[in-house]
Amino acid sequence: MPNLPDNGMIHLSSPHSVIETLARLETIVQTKGLTIQARIDHSGDAAKAGLEMLPTKLLIFGNARAGTPLMIASPGVAIDLPLKALVWQDDAGKVWLSYNSPDYLKERHAVPENLLQNVVGIGPICSEAVR
Predict the structure, then answer these.
(1) pLDDT digits over 68-121, tens only?
(2) Rounded to whole angstroms, how far apart are CA atoms 22 and 14?
(3) How many CA atoms lie within 13 A of 24 on its CB side?
């Protein structure tokens, strides 16, 4: 794994390409009834600007029934919601799927323990995408 700071993110190694990992993630998210809010192609946007960047794509997704109670209890958490998953390739050609740890979100925004369950589902979703 590349040398990454311990900054509240979880990084999962993927045996798939960036495009395939993202497609798997999107399928799982939709199967779970979550809404895809946005797809951001950072590397594609870089290419349009004449810059070179390894494949890097962000998926933003969520569910208002799960996210809204968190934002009501701790309004600052809205900066990190909806949930985000970053699929990217490192310099060695390895593909990663990264996301904010629910425990990090809890600490960062003082999310009440009883509402943490509303975001912990990102772990199993991302784990399934990289299988």
Answers:
(1) 999 999 999 999 999 999 999 999 999 999 999 999 999 999 999 999 999 999
(2) 10
(3) 19
For β-strands 95-100 and 35-41, DSSP reports them as: unpaired
Can you give the pTM of this predicted structure? 0.94
- Determine the longest span between alpha carbons in the chain, in angstroms: 47
Q: Label residues 91-120 b or e (16+ Cβ within 10 Å = b).
A: eeeebbbbbbbbebbbebbebeeebeebbe
Distance CA 26, CA 117 (A): 21
Determine how β-strand 9-14 pairs with β-strand 83-89.
unpaired
Query: Which residues, other chains included, contact 4 with Cβ-Cβ below 8 Å and sequence gap of 6+?
Result: 11
Q: What is the pLDDT of residue 89?
A: 98
Q: pLDDT value at position 6?
A: 73
| Contact present, 85 and 58 (Cβ < 8 Å) | yes
Contact predicate 35/26, CB 8 Å: no
